[in-house]
Amino acid sequence: MDVTAFDEEMMRRAMQLARCGELGASPNPMVGAVVTCDGHIIGEGYHRKCGGPHAEVNAIASVADQHKLPESAIYVTLEPCAHFGRTPPCADLIADKGLKRVVVGCLDPFAKVDGRGVERLRRAGIEVVTGVLREECEALNVKFFTAHRRHRPYTLLKWATSADGFMASRDGAVKFSTPLTMQLMHGLRARYDAIMTGAGTILTDNPSLTVRGTAGRNPARVVLDASGVTPAGASVYDPGRVICFTDRRRDDLPSHVEQQTDIDSHDMAAVMKRLYDLGFISLMVEGGARTLTAVADSGLWDEARVERSPVRLGRDGRCLMPAPTGVLKRSETIDGNIIAEYVRPCVEPV
C-alpha cells in the first residue's frame, strides 16, 4: 500500500513522542506510538522507562473509547516486540485488540525481535506497512542500532584542552571548562549508560563521574585499572553500579564493584564486547590522554566532543591531545570556549 502524507505526519508525531523518553528508556530504545481512527489521533504514548510499559501499550491504553480500536491504525517508530522480556509482547497486544493497520518506522535490530514482530502481526491478518521515514527513525536510536549491530556500546570520546591542545599543565590538572559548559557536560553524561575512565585520571583527579546540577540518572562507572593501583576509597567506587577491569581480583574494593578479571583492560575490543554483554548500549569515555588515545586508536568510537579553552599553556603544557581523526559535525562557542563535535568516518554499515 502506498505511504501517504498523513502516514508521514503521524510518524513524525510518533518520533516527537519517542524523544520524551531520552532520559529513562535506555538500554531500551526510545519509541513513540500514535493511534488514529478516521484521520484523527485518538491515542498517544511513548516508552518512559526501561522495565515499564512500551509505547504501544501506553498509546492503546490512552484511547478513551476502546471500541474504536478495531477500526484504528497505530503508528510506531520501531517494530513492536514479539518476545517476553520485562513486559509481554506488544505485537500480541495489538493483535488481541484487533487494530486493522500497523505502520512501522523501522525494524528492530535486536536479535529477539528483528522482523518477528511484523511477522506476528501479519499472521494475525493485520495490514503492516514498514519503512516509513526509516532513516529518521533509525537516526533517533543511533545508539541502540549501533550497539546491536556492532556488539559494542555506541561510544563518545570527551575531553577538554587548552587552546594549544594540552589536557594538563606541569603543575597538574587544569580546569578548562566554565560553570556553563560543565552543566552541559553533566547533561550529556545523563544521556549515556556508562562512563569510562582510567587509573591515571582517578589518581590525579579523583572524579565522581556522577550527574549533578541537571536532570537524569547517574551512568554506571567503568574503571580501567589493570595493575590495581586505584584507592579503594576513590569517589568512583561510591555506591552505584561500578565495573572495574583489573588483572587480579581485589578484596579491598567495595562489594558492589563488579570486577572483570578475565579481560585484558588494554584490549579495547574485548572491553567493549564485555560492556555490551553486560547490557550497556552507550558509553562515554572521559579519561586521560592514555585512555582516550587507546579507544581512538582502536577505532571503536562513534563521536568525539572536544572543548577548547582560550587559555594557552605553552611550555607549561603536558598531555598533548590532538583533535580526533574524524569528520567535524558541529562547532560552537559557548561561554568563550569552543565545543567541537566530530563523528568517526563510516567504514562499516550501521
UniProtKB/TrEMBL annotation:
Its cofactor is Zn(2+). It comes from the Bacteria. The keyword Oxidoreductase applies. It catalyses: 5-amino-6-(5-phospho-D-ribitylamino)uracil + NADP(+) = 5-amino-6-(5-phospho-D-ribosylamino)uracil + NADPH + H(+); 2,5-diamino-6-hydroxy-4-(5-phosphoribosylamino)-pyrimidine + H2O + H(+) = 5-amino-6-(5-phospho-D-ribosylamino)uracil + NH4(+). Residues 5-129 form the CMP/dCMP-type deaminase domain. One of its GO terms (molecular function) is diaminohydroxyphosphoribosylaminopyrimidine deaminase activity. In the C-terminal section; belongs to the HTP reductase family. This is Riboflavin biosynthesis protein RibD. It comes from Paramuribaculum intestinale. The gene is ribD.
